[in-house]
Amino acid sequence: MGCRNLVRRLGAQGRRVPLVKVRVAGVAVGIVGLLAGSSASYGLFSAQLVGSSSAQSDTVFVNQPFSGNSVGSNWTLPSNPSVFGTNGACLTEGGKPTGSSPIPQCQGASDSANSGSLRLTNNQALQLGTAFYSGSVPTSEGLIARFTTYQFGYSAENSPYGLGAADGIGFIMAAADPSNPQPPATGGSPGGALGYGVYPPGAYGNYGSSPFNGISHGYLGVGFDVYGNYLNPNYEGSGCTPLTGFSQNQTYPQAITVKGPGNGTNGYCDLHTTGQLPTGVALDSASSASRPSTGVPVEVVINPSSNSITTTGLNSTSITVPSGHYYVQALPYGTTSPVVVTGSLPTYKATSESSSNYCSTIDSSVCLPASWVNPNTGLPYQLTFGWTASTGGGNEYHEISGVEVTSVTPAPTLGLGMSNAASSGNVVAGTSTSFVFSPSVQLATGVEESSAPTLQATFPTGLVPHFSSIATTDWHCGASSGQSLSCGYGGTTPISSGGPLPTISVPVTAAAGTAAGTRFVVNGTLSSNDAAPVTASSAVTVVAPTTAPTTLTPGLSLTKTEAPSSPNPITKAGQSVTYDFAVTNT
Questions:
Q1: Which residues lie below 8 Å from residue 548, measured CB to CB, with a gap of 6+?
Q2: Does a cis peptide bond (omega within 30 degrees of 0) precede residue 380?
Q3: What tens digit of pLDDT does each residue of 382-397 get?
Q4: To which H or E segment does residue 442 belong?
Q5: Alpha helices in 26-93 (DSSP H)
Q6: Are 258 and 326 in contact (CB under 8 A)?
Q7: What does the pLDDT look like over 307-363, one tens digit per residue?
Q8: Alpha helix locations (H) across 341-382?
């Protein structure tokens, strides 16, 4: 089934009082007591390690309300598996978009200025929409994500089997290569999988004998599930043991569930859940034809540190997250009590001392390259994240807005500049120029970089890099080949903030015969294990060779000849003679 995500930043409605933890049959639930008449807000991001003397400032990774009709280039829409059609994510604000946007405007978008959202699905069957942040974030400094979800507008007419409102919204995280972090290129499965887990045979639209894949290198998938299949053990991959009290082929509607690591059809095991919320408490507003004025605010905290942390929760109250835990808090409709799901962060471990892979301690068939995992904590160095929603036989609109993502404690801030030596950015086919990369550790957070950065760049076909002639110090670029530059920093670490690193100059040649007007764009990425990656680009345009003007040297000559009319021979003095003169310029 499916749903759509909508996130709002501040001012969501709700109430909260002291947290009471309840554990029932493998279900970890935090129920916050009632406080009538209060309002919910997120407040400012800040976090404090328990026992420290002052709050830690954070590093802001994302601040995107999704209220307009265009977004910046730091968002991407993974392609859907072919059987599920086009990724339906779009922006609902009307008017003419300003500039290009990686997330398109919804067809028929009509929301007034600055009141839109990110729509993930419409209320049709078998929809899948996914939007990922195009960068990644380091796990070492923790993560706080805040947003609001909207699920509404069920259409009985569009439900082939009358299955009702479905399915739900997911906030998903996936591990990434720290040397070249990229979000997943393809989304997960629709329906009860919510774009994160597997889609079993026999589910609506899957008439084969094998499950459809989940998201690549999934780490955590938080499902806000209206229909109830996300918690159905059928939607776990291989290698999972169902939570106690939850049976296959059963639905558990109106539940918030966290799934663990998975890849392909392996893993995506249920870790903790609220189970079905009490009667009258809901994650959606199925009867609302349009987006409700208030949504369901959500906060997700990742604490990888060795200390508990205290941060701002819903209603601007403090929450404490234990060491090595995740913490999900949401405020559904029909209650003044935020609901909490919490548990230990999934880890990976080496399968042997010489192993090139680290495998999940939950399902050993789910593995990552060793270079992706911090051996001290067992956590991925870098995580990508995004929002997804899906429908199956049932439907609803699914939207999000107001996304804010920060670190818990300050993270190093990298910087990257790029330029080229081509005159006015122009190069003649068959001639050479060079691209210069200027990396740095920024002063923004004042945090030194303890991990050696990596620089990656791709040169487009037709622009030939000469890696054997790279000019640099402290960078080792021996792994570069073909059209791909790969350089690791070999200087002293930690690197103090506020200073540049040595530049890297790469000679290139524009291939002979390249047509004038061809534009070559080189994209670079600077990343490390404990900082968010940064990107930069530089471009050259092929122009026709300039023909130098020809300089002519005058070559004058004078020729004198006797005219044919002159007497010949001349026989006496005083006789008239006619001569012809010819002036020639050679």
A1: none
A2: no
A3: 999 999 999 988 999 9
A4: none
A5: none
A6: yes
A7: 999 988 887 778 999 999 999 999 999 998 899 999 999 999 998 766 789 999 999
A8: none
